[in-house]
Write a structure and sequence with these properties.
Radius of gyration: 13 Å
Strand content: 25-35%
Order of helices and strands: HEHEHHEE
CATH class: Alpha Beta
CATH topology: Beta Polymerase, domain 2
Shape: globular
Strand order of the largest sheet: 1-2-4-3
Helix content: 25-40%
Number of domains: 1
Largest sheet: 4 strands, mixed
Distance between the termini: 31 Å
CATH architecture: 2-Layer Sandwich
Number of strands: 4
Structural class: alpha+beta
Length: 92
């Protein structure tokens, strides 16, 4: 998954329970939370990439635009939440 983010040049940051465990005291968590920085023009492409090529659970782009999160699940059952910190338009 991290390889995909880097290959697609998508800036990301690990947040939530796993980030807390890396920096301080570990705590139980049931999912992996990542913040992504994706422009409004790239949002649909990123959502399609992660839902059709890698992960088993699909959400509409409209859902993601409204809620700012793409919850997905891998075929192995790992749950991930991609949270979109910024979805700005590219300025010309």
């Amino acid at each position: 998954m991290i390889d995909d983010l880097e290959r697609e040049s998508i800036p990301y940051m690990l947040i939530g329970g796993l980030a807390l465990a890396a920096w301080t005291l570990p705590r139980a968590t049931l999912d992996i939370d990542l913040t992504l920085w994706v422009s409004a023009e790239e949002l649909e492409r990123v959502c399609l990439h992660f839902t059709t090529l890698i992960f088993s659970r699909r959400r509409s782009v409209g859902f993601v635009r409204q809620r700012r999160v793409l919850p997905v699940e891998t075929a192995a059952g790992a749950r991930l939440d991609f949270l979109f910190a910024a979805s700005h338009s590219k300025r010309k």
